[in-house]
Design a protein that fits this description.
With 313 residues, the protein is an alpha+beta fold. The chain has helices spanning 2-12, 33-48, 70-76, 78-83, 91-99, 102-107, 109-113, 123-128, 137-140, 179-191, 284-291, and strands at residues 19-23, 26-29, 57-58, 150-153, 159-163, 194-195, 203-208, 225-229, 238-239, 245-246, 255-258, 262-266. The chain has eleven helices and twelve strands.
């Protein structure tokens, strides 16, 4: 359908029109959601409380079966499916959840899943109480943030970690003098997180955003540590060096965005079959302006991507 629509538009264009089709980013298998959405919040929870397990507890080395079918998550919803994998440390609650009808568990959700009944707070309780983004797993841990040295912020794509710093954060517990050592410890642990199926490291790159922990530059992100994840494999479970396995869990979506986009062009002065090696989304505007023979303002970032041959008179 997309090809047909593009063909219809091109057919209506003037004979000598420059035709450009582009996407600023691409699509691919969903390697992006689970690492930041689920694994990082749970990893940071275990990092702070090594004796505890939140959601999707697993044993490193246990054989993994098939991926959990999308239909499983679609029936109950992804967040509810993941929440149902929560480890219940209280044996009475664990027994009651196992024997009570689901309608009674839902009726007494405040006891089972509310702030007074659990260290994590369920997405259903958060939704009922009007808390924003209730289906972001990072929010499930937010009640514990004041007790944590560092925690994951809600995100897709890249992972974001905030150090709970004294003198900056309202309930900070980490001394500025401890900041560098804590960042190094977290980064080292992140580099040891691996796809449980392939053994591939999950973190492609980990970036510290501040040299001075008390730097109040408003242009700095909320995160002190940013994790850029690998994009080669879809990980439904991850193994850590000392904090066990997280997963397996169902995928939130089968596909997700990718950083690499594309551009194709046809028209007068554009060499057929030519290609460009690389580019950036910031180059799109200068490219389009050049093809329209418009002057390029000095304030524009980026550069034209396509070489246009000017006819010799």
């Amino acid at each position: 359908m997309i090809d047909q629509a593009i063909g219809d538009i091109v057919a209506l264009a003037p004979e000598h029109a420059q035709i450009v089709v582009f996407a600023a980013h691409g699509m691919g298998a969903n390697v992006m959601d689970l690492p930041s959405l689920l694994y990082l919040p749970e990893f940071m929870y275990r990092f702070n409380f090594p004796e505890r397990r939140g959601v999707a507890p697993g044993q490193v080395g246990d054989p993994l079966g098939d991926y959990i079918a999308d239909e499983t998550a679609q029936q109950k919803g992804w967040a509810k499916t993941v929440w149902d994998s929560k480890h219940e440390a209280n044996p009475l609650k664990r027994a009651l959840k196992a024997i009570l009808p689901q309608r009674l568990v839902n009726k007494f959700a405040n006891y089972f899943d509310g702030p007074s009944g659990s260290d994590l707070v369920s997405p259903l309780w958060l939704k009922r109480n009007g808390v924003p983004q209730p289906f972001q797993p990072a929010i499930w841990y937010s009640r514990l943030w004041p007790q944590m040295k560092a925690f994951a912020l809600p995100s897709f794509s890249e992972g974001y970690i905030r150090i709970n710093l004294k003198g900056r954060d309202a309930q900070g517990i980490v001394e500025p003098s401890e900041y560098d050592a804590l960042c190094d410890e977290i980064i080292e642990a992140l580099h040891q997180m691996k796809d449980a199926r392939t053994g591939q490291p999950m973190a492609q790159r980990v970036v510290r955003t501040r040299q001075n922990p008390l730097d109040d530059d408003p242009k700095l992100p909320d995160a002190d540590i940013v994790v850029i994840w690998q994009e080669e494999t879809v990980a439904d479970a991850v193994d850590t060096a000392d904090l066990g396995r997280i997963g397996p869990v169902p995928l939130l979506r089968t596909g997700s965005h990718r950083a690499d986009g594309f551009i194709v062009a046809q028209g007068n002065g554009i060499e057929a079959g030519s290609s460009i090696e690389t580019g950036h989304s910031l180059d799109l505007a200068p490219t389009l302006m050049q093809l329209m023979d418009a002057p390029l303002p000095d304030y524009l970032d980026g550069k034209p991507l396509i070489k246009v041959k000017v006819p010799v008179a």
